[in-house]
Amino acid sequence: MTSDNGYKSGSNLERVLRTGHFAVTTELGPPKSADPDVIREKAAILKGFADAANITDNQAAVVRMSSIGAGAITLQAGVEPVMQMTCRDRNRLAMQSDLLGAHALGLRNVLCLSGDHQVFGNHPQAKNVHDLDSLQLVQMVTDFREKGCFQCGEEVEGDSPRFFVGAAANPFATPLEWRPLRLGKKAKAGADFIQTQLVFDLPRFREFMKEVVDLGVHEQVYILAGVGPLKSPGMARYMRDKVPGLNVPNEFVERMTAAGSGIEDKPTRSAAWREAGIAICVELIQQMREIPGVAGVHIMAIEWEKAIPIITKQAGLLPRPSA
Amino acid sequence: MIIAEQKSLDEIKNLLGDGKRVLVVGCGTCVTVCFAGGEKEAGILATTLRMNTQLNGDPKAVTHLTVQRQCESEYLDTIQDQVSEADVVLSVGCGIGVQALAEKYSDALVVPGLNTSFMGQPLEQGVWAERCQACGSCVLGVTGGICPIARCSKQLLNGPCGGTDDGRCEIDADLECAWQLIYDKLKTQERMHLLMDITPPKDWSSSRDGGPRKIVRKDLRLPGQEMSNDER
Are residues B98 and B167 in the same domain? Predict the structure, then answer.
């Protein structure tokens, strides 16, 4: 799967994108424990249904198994990991030593993030770092590959890590007109691929992508649109009302509500909701495939890995290109 | 200026311990302006402590005074007698004032009555906000006069991040996103090229990360003043 295949990084995700396939990435959340079996079980569900799986890095500022540790186990289990790395918890020394270690363990993709602020998590008393920001992290990881040097300019003695470098974009955050330009800035910093925030508001996303294409940024970086299945009308409402910038249209909230109406039995109702959530997700993926500049999808099914085989099948994304 | 807030009465009493004679020392500079530790606040705190300890059956003799600038040793010369008569000195200056007092009167027990909060400015009556982190390498010239180090929750140099919601920071809906402000300002100034450039990693060695800081101005040193290690 991960091999020296003649590309920048040797990652499967890079190969899939460079050979012109519509890429599929997904998410594998590490456990709040040291249990490797949780990761193996999730990886077993995802294997063959995505080109790579993002391993989150203390997502939402809640301590979990490290993305590197969990990523190495994911790799052993036959799924290529995208190691997420935030600027919240590490300074440039720790970041670079972790990148060296991760590469030595066989990890080849890294997604560079600022990181959710620690006030949201389970250690709000923590000191945050933010020595670098996400753009500077992209630059640092790219310099390892392109220049063989550390952030300070010193040469790496011997093998320098060669990662396929990712970054995030939120098309829905203000100032809206700045978002395509900021994506361009991430491409300029050296990002190879972008994964976006969850998209429900397709009109706004189309507008964003049009500006990105007009700038020519889609030719510098692969853009994977973020999607995810809704589980319930409650989740849809929560995302619509409480999560900044997610813009879940009422139409989806109403569809989710209608899917369960009249069903008394809770498990049956829940299954009906989930079916509707998957249907919406599949429709979104199909529409995204038609948007110029979209090179793939990043399917986030948080703690619902079993949805991935269904979504990818229904969206006609199978079989995945074999390594 | 330096903005501070008074500690809770319980914490202050705990810091005073068994001391019977308490001297509250106010400061006439920043903490006067932010209503935390000036003459008026020092007086009110002294009265409160007298009454409270009296009511609780552990009466303390609390007096107070205010110096013009607690952070400078010369201004502390005149209070030697009062300090020596006190069991505990309760400074309601900023953290610098507390340390200057403790250094000047090394035999005295000096405790803080304030929490020094930040360097900032008053926004309106009773409202102050942080404006500077003293990073030692000012970026305001390229950020439209708005400091991302002090005012962005993540200290981004290439913001705004994806957490901006309608110009507000993701961590608090009442908090303006510094990078939205920077963006708006640079747009008005037609200096958007400053945002297009990638700002490289900051050299934090001039900030507290480089160790406690000290400035020696040779041009201001007086003839015959002993050279410190820094100057050699």
Answer: no
Q: How does strand B127-132 pair with strand B168-169?
A: unpaired
Mean predicted confidence (pLDDT) in A47-65: 97
* Residue B198 near residue A185 (C-beta atoms within 8 A): yes
Q: Is residue B230 part of a domain?
A: no
Same domain, B151 and B45: no
The band of A3, judged by pLDDT with boundaries at 50, 70 and 90, is very low
Residue A117: DSSP 8-state = -
Residues on chain A touching B160 (C-beta within 8 angstroms) = 173-175, 178, 182
At residue A122, does pLDDT exceed 70?
A: yes
- In tens, the pLDDT along A254-279 reads 999 999 999 999 999 999 999 999 99
How many angstroms separate the CA of residue B168 from the nearest CA in chain A?
9
pLDDT of residue B84: 98
Among A178, A197, A215, the residue to mutate for chain B (most B Cβ within 10 A): A178
This prediction has a pTM of: 0.95
- Interface predicted TM-score of the whole assembly (ipTM), two decimals: 0.94
Give me the amino acid identity at B170: E
The class (CATH top level) of A12-228+292-301 is alpha beta
Residues spanned by the domain of B44:
2-118
CB-based contacts of B51-54 (< 8 A; 24+ apart in sequence):
B52/B9, B52/B13, B53/B13
